[in-house]
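During the second half of the funding period, the structural biology subgroup turned its attention to how the target accommodates small molecules. The most pressing case was zinc ion, which had performed well in the primary screen but for which no bound structure existed. We therefore specified the complex as follows and requested a full 3D prediction, including the ligand pose.
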Amino acid sequence: MTDSLTLARPDDWHLHLRDGAALRAVVADSARRFARAIVMPNLTPPVRSVDEARAYRQRIVDALPAGARFEPLMTLYLTEATTPADVLAAKASGIVHAVKYYPAGATTNSQSGVTDLSRCDAVFATMQDVGLPLLLHGEVTDPSVDVFDREAVFIERHGRALVERFPGLRIVMEHLTTRDGVDFVLAARDGVAATLTPQHLLMNRNAIFAGGLRPHAFCLPVLKREAHRAALVAAATSGNPRFFLGTDSAPHPRHAKESDCGCAGIYSAHAAIELYAEVFDAAGALTGLEAFASFHGADFYGLPRNTDTITLVREPVPVPDELAFGDARLVPMRAGGTVAWRLVASA
Ligand code: NCD
Ligand code: ZN
Ligand code: ZN
């Protein structure tokens, strides 16, 4: 049994860092583990321009602990007012690495999202031309579609057409949750990839109802049944470079999740790479963790692989019941339990 694992420092290709006191509370957890992160733009108001991305990037850098080395890779939030000129400016900026699509109303802070994808054709064409990836929250919001089917229906109604209509557009299916999604990515042309979260790899939808209603297991896309989880694990551990690490760590204050209308999002940054190590270990695929966590995403984004390393040792680490989160409290993934790996060193 492998009890110690050293790997090239990983990156997180889907991360919510929030802003203000919340940002200051969480950014160190990511910076300790990851060299870089694709930072989601769903603030209020959202990050829509290069100027807003540059200002947000500076707030992130200012919130880092002294001595931390962590590179925020910024994204723009796609709205129906986004223009090809915004895309050109994003590409030229050197700090914006992707554009994020949220269907209006699908998830946290998605009010400014897109109601009709066809309104974005000129923007997608420009992204294709300059090589700026499109990141998809791939769910439909049609209220007549069952919440557990929203990813599969998105693929049928929009995903396939988008991939074919813009054959050079680089596309990431973010936080993939279904076997349908895995099959779609596997069968798609080059340039289509997906991120996988620790919660969708470790839990199925029973976790939302374990002994009672569990708001801290609620995220979007919602957890799916076991067969889907198994398909995601198979994809993650297959070695296929189309699948890479993206935590979707999405902190919300405790009171906002434990509420009549609780927010979607699971905080995992406090133990992110450790949780992925559990997934790969359980699948007998620990040696594949490095490529999934440290190589495939960098290669997709055309960025250099990290050359420094981190080390994990097999050792149970308790997870606190809650963490400080500005004026509020934050309930982390696995709260009150243990994670099976400890991050010991960085070199
Ligand atoms: C995310 C958030 O809270 O910002 N929530 C979530 O459940 N994943 C938004 C998102 O990624 O859809
Ligand atoms: Zn999302
Ligand atoms: Zn997210």
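Two results from this model are relevant to the next phase. Residues 107, 137, 174-175, 220 surround zinc ion (ligand 2) (CB under 6 Å). Residues 150-165 form the longest helix (16 residues).
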